[in-house]
Structure prediction request, 362 residues.
Amino acid sequence: MPALINPSRPCALPADARALLARWGLSSSTLLTTDRQSPKLRHGQARARAVILYTLPARSLAEAINPDNPADGPRSFVPSLFSLAEAHGLTQKARAYNACPWATPGCGGAGGACLAWAGHAGMGSPEKNPIVAARGRRTLARLDDPEAFGRAVFWSALRHLLRARRDGLPLAVRLRGTDDHPWHRHVVPVSEAEAEAIAARYGVDVTPGEATMAARLAAVPELRPYEYSAAPVNGPLGLIAQRDAGPVDVTSSFKPDRLTGCADAVAALRAGFRLSVPVRVKRGAPLPSALTLTAGGESITVPTVDGDAGGDHRWTDPHGVAVLLRLKNARGCGPEADAFSLAAHGMPQHLPDGSALLTWPD
Prediction:
């Protein structure tokens, strides 16, 4: 860390990043949601300060700018986003965009159980809900200028790092808050002048030139980058590629309704990842102690941890476990959402390519 730090120095974003945020009604201070704003993050404040990037998931941006969509539900037409997309020539790109390429009908479909529609984001009409509108503007800004948006996110994370330092804690950073954008391949260029400004303002050494967001975050010792992803294990977008890019702590998201869901989950556990598993358990009820997955003649049993205890800091959980997350009430979900989670009733559950069994200790 550079010896001379001036935290009172103005937070001057690069010009293109500053212009991009202004164009979409965003700001560096609110681009990332903090543990002061999110109950999910607030529960883990003893371990770290935390920030998370919330955008619109799956095909939700296309739905939000579709005038044929009803305008009276949480996942409906948002006239202000449609007007912005039209004004900036992004309508066609937004209609084709899928923020979650591995989404299943149970999570990312029109009636899926995606947590993006739980809590305040699922309340009322989207046009009157500032949360939905802000997430839509962030998504459009990333489509508009990915390079400038990446720099804005990086500078915003550094801004929040100052608060974590004051509290003597690391800063946990999760950018796939409500989507599965490939940040491990998203290049964030930094000029010599920017690197000098970051060193003077934040006391962080940044290598000028091109590097991915994952590498940028992982190079700052006080940051704890972590993600959830529904990607397969292998391939350029896969879990291993994501983990190795930083390194970044990655939790595999189990999709019970995926045609290869059990096989993918077994492969992720075998590769050393932990597995997040949505379960239908009432608040306060005990959780199962183990999960057994069977696929293609192979079976694996792993212990479970309570993913709702202690906040969202998956990077503090051991690998090779099933992180049980109680299903939240996502507004606007349909019958397809039932296949998104496991029922903790102690009976084998038959899934498209295998089975799952949640068990309690004897």
Remarks:
- The CA atoms of residues 302 and 321 lie 5 Å apart.
- Residues 15-255 form one domain.
- DSSP finds twelve helices and twelve strands in the chain.
